Structure formats: structure tokens, C-alpha cells
Amino acid sequence: MIRYSPSESLSPRRAAAPHCRALLLARAALCLTALTTSMPAGAAAERSGWPQTVGEWTVAIGKDGDGCFLSRRYDRLGATTLLLGLDRDGTNHLSVLNANWTIQPRDRQALDFRLSKGRYDRHFVVGIAADGQQGFATSFEWRFPAYFATSAFLHIDRGRIPVERLSLEGSGDAVATLRRCVAALGRTGADATKAAGAGTGIPRDPFAESVSKPRRARR
What we know:
- It is a single chain.
- By secondary structure, the chain is an alpha+beta fold.
- It is built from four helices and eleven strands.
- It has helices spanning 18-36, 144-149, 171-184, 189-196; strands at 2-3, 52-54, 57-61, 67-73, 81-87, 92-98, 108-115, 118-130, 133-138, 153-158, 161-167.
- Strands 1, 2, 3, 4, 5, 6, 7, 8, 9, 10 and 11 form an eleven-stranded mixed β-sheet that branches.
- The model is unreliable at 6-19, 36-46 and 192-198 (pLDDT under 50).
């Protein structure tokens, strides 16, 4: 079994960074809000085909329109809800909630995540609450959605205490649909600006300090 490396910015050693906690809370809140909030009437035409149901999974556009997420609710005590979000810039965020859990919003924990072929040990998570459920949010390296798609299960532990045992059956098709959803949103503003200026030789910001100084004329 492979031991995946935790995301550097979210490792337990750097769990105290307030900007990391704020980012996770914001992204998780947007996904959770989108579960019960429809897109605005003026949403772009290319978004009209969402949400979509893929087996036991639902794929939808995030409320901020900057990414998509897939979700699944498990029929058990507390009705565990799993959400995996993917943004246009490639970042991901995972949330798991249950009505019986007592983890408090903004609490920091280090949990073990085990997939079919690998695991993340002592991975940083932050507590969240939404729609009568409490749980946690976290983020992984950019390869995580691919690992998620090829796994049959996701086991989560708090040391020797089991937290959840979740089936990921059908996750391959769900993640493929998730990627199509993100692609339908188009490029990010920075990518679009870069593409628009491609071939002109003109930098995005010609006054930025990072822009190289003009080359000296050859003699």
C-alpha cells in the first residue's frame, strides 16, 4: 500500500495557518450551500445542464461558479454526507459530515485517510457545520481526485478510532462527470487573459517587477 504525502500547505505541522483554515471553511461553505440553493436565473447557458445524477452521486456547480462538486449521502445513523469539490485552477476540497458528530466548527484535527491503494496519515482537517450536520473539510494534492476515482472505498480514522467507512462505488464515472462540469465553466480569468495575449509578445502586466528588463542590442 502506498503512503501518499499530505498536502504541504495543510499538513499537521502547518495546521495553525489562519489563511488555510479560512480557505477551507469558505470553499466548504460554498459547496454545502449549493446543495440547497439553485443557481441564479441569470446563470450562463452552458450551466443549464447541471446538476447531474451519476449512480449514487450528484454533480453540481458550486455557488460561486468557480468550480463543481460531487456529493453522496449514505443511508446510516446520522446520514453521512460526502462532498468532493474541484475548482477551475485544479485545487480540490473534501468535506464529510454527520448529524451525530460533535466536532466543532474551526476545530483542528489530524485524521488518517485510507483509499484502496494508498493512504494519507495524520492529514489536517478543520471542523465545519451545515444543514444540521457537523463534520470537517480538508484539501489534498492535485492527484487526489484521480486516486478517489479509482478507489472502491474511503476509510477515515482518528488514531485508533474509526470515523467512517465509505463505499466509493461509481466514483470513477462521478469524477469524470465532475471534470466535465469544471471544463464547462471555461478557463479562469487569468488563463483567459493569457490566452488572449498569446502570440503578441505583450506581457499581462508590462510594469510588473517580475518582467525581464529589455535585452541589450547585439553588437
